[in-house]
Amino acid sequence: MSAGRPRTFEEQEVLDRAIELFWRQGYEVTGLSQLLEHIGMARQSLYNVFGDKRGLYLKALDAYSAQELARLESNLSVNVSAYDSLCDCILAYADEPKMGKPAGCMIVNASCEFGTTDAEVTSTAQQFWDHYAGRIQRSLEAAMAAGDLPPGLDARRSAWAVTQAVTAMRVLQRAAVPKDRVRDVANSAIEGIAVNAGF
Amino acid sequence: MSAGRPRTFEEQEVLDRAIELFWRQGYEVTGLSQLLEHIGMARQSLYNVFGDKRGLYLKALDAYSAQELARLESNLSVNVSAYDSLCDCILAYADEPKMGKPAGCMIVNASCEFGTTDAEVTSTAQQFWDHYAGRIQRSLEAAMAAGDLPPGLDARRSAWAVTQAVTAMRVLQRAAVPKDRVRDVANSAIEGIAVNAGF
DNA sequence: TACAAAATTGACCGTCTAGTCTGTTATGTC
DNA sequence: GACATAACAGACTAGACGGTCAATTTTGTA
C-alpha cells in the first residue's frame, strides 16, 4: 500500500515559514521563487503537496489563525484573576511586534488585500474574529463571576469591542505608528469594558 | 513660453478613477493595462504626468486622504450640537460601503499591503490618522463646552480611541462582516467616549 | 504659415510570473 | 534484488508585467 521516497521536510515547519513570509509581504507580492527558497521546498513538491500557491497560502492562513487563538488562550489562562490576565493580555499587544516577527496581523492583512474576492479568506477571517471574541467573552464572564466586573455588563458586546480594538492596534503597528499611540487604544479598550455596566 | 497640445483629461477625474481601482483592488494586483483602461489615459501620458505607476498611486492616496478628511469635516459641521453630529457621524460609518463604492478604507488597505516597505505610504497614513483624530478632538471639545460632555474628559485620548474604532470598522467592512457587528463597534466607541470622565 | 512645444499612439523591450513536464533519485515492499 | 511508489531537481512554456522608444498629432505663438 504505502511506499516511495519519504519527504525531506516537515509540513508544520513549512507552514511556519510560509506564514512568516506571507504575513510580512502579503500574497500577491510574494513570488513563487522567493517562496520556495524561503520554505526550503522544491517547486514540484509544493504543487504535489499543496496544489498551488493559493493552496499553500490558505493553509498558512488557517495555521496562523490557530496559532493566534492558541496564544490568546495561553495568555488568558495564566494563574491570576481573569480580569487581570485579560488586561495584561490586551496591554501586551502594545509591545508588538516582537523582534524578528512581522508587524500587524496576517488575518487583517489578508482581509485588506483580498476584500471579498476570495470567499475562503473572508470566511477564515470572520471565524477568527468570532472565536477570538468568544474567548474574550469567557474571560469577561469569569471576571464578572469573580466580582471584578459588575454583573450587568454585556459581555458579548464588550468582548467584541475589545477584539476590534486589537484589530485597530495591529493596523497601527503595521504602519509603524509609535507604541504610545497603540497603548492608548489598549487602555481605552480596557477602560471601555465597564462602561455598559455603569461602573 | 507656453505652447503645445493641451491635455484631453482632467487630472482630478483621473485621480478619482485611480482611487476607485486602487482602493478596490490594492496596488500590486492592479495591472498597468487595466489601470490605463480604467482611468482612460494613454500609457505614455501616465509616465509623462505621474512618473510611474507608484507615482500615480501615491497621488491617488493623497487625494483619497484629502477627500476623506473633507467628508469628515462636512459630517461634523452640520447644524446641530457637536455631540449629536459626532455620534451620527460615527454611526453613519456602519452603513458603508455605499453602493458602487469599494469596501473599507484605502489608507488602511495601503498600510496593510505595504507595511513599512514604503516610507511615503506610512507617512501619509500616520498623518491621516493624526488629522482625523485632531478633527474629532475639536468636536469633543465643542461638546464639552456645550455641556454635552463632562469637563474632565481627555478629549485627545478619546478622539484617538474613536478614530481607531473607525479603523477597525473599516477592516470589518472589507471582510464583509455583517453590519450589526460593525454597528456594535460604533456604539461601543460612542459609549466609551465618556468613560474617562466618570459620567 | 512656419515653428516649437507638448500630448498621444502603438510597437517594442527584457524580465519575471505561476505553473507544467520530464527525467532522476530514493525508499518500502515483495 | 526487482518493482512500485513517491519525492526531488531542473529545464521549459506561455503570458503578463512595468517601463521605454520613436513617430505622429495637435495645439499656441511668432
Describe what you observe in this structure:
The structure is a homodimer of 199-residue chains. Chain A has a domain at 60-197: Tetracycline Repressor, domain 2 (Orthogonal Bundle). In chain A, 69% of the residues lie in helices and 0% in strands. Chain A has helices spanning 11-25, 32-39, 43-50, 53-76, 82-92, 106-114, 119-145, 155-174, 179-193. In chain A, helix 1 crosses helix 4 (53-76), helix 4 (53-76) runs parallel beside helix 7 (119-145) and helix 6 (106-114) runs antiparallel to helix 7. The interface between A and B is large, with 45 and 45 residues. The first copy, chain A, binds a DNA duplex (30 and 30 nucleotides) through residues 1-8, 31-33, 42-45, 47-49, 52-53.
List keywords for this structure.
homodimer; 199 residues; mainly alpha; Tetracycline Repressor, domain 2; 9 helices; 69% helix; elongated; DNA-binding
Tally of helical runs of chain A:
9
State Rg of chain A: 19 Å
Roughly how much helix do the residues of chain A carry, as a percent range?
Answer: 55-70%
Helix/strand-derived category of chain A reads: mainly alpha
**Could you give a short account of the major beta sheet of chain A?**
none
- Beta-strand percent range of chain A: under 5%
The CATH superfamily title of the domain at 60-197 in chain A: Tetracycline Repressor, domain 2
Task: Describe the secondary-structure layout.
Two copies of one chain form a homodimer.
Chain A: H1 11-25, H2 32-39, H3 43-50, H4 53-76, H5 82-92, H6 106-114, H7 119-145, H8 155-174, H9 179-193
Helix pairs in contact in A: 1-4, 1-6, 4-7, 6-7, 7-8, 8-9
Chain A binds a DNA duplex (30 and 30 nucleotides) through residues 1-8, 31-33, 42-45, 47-49, 52-53.
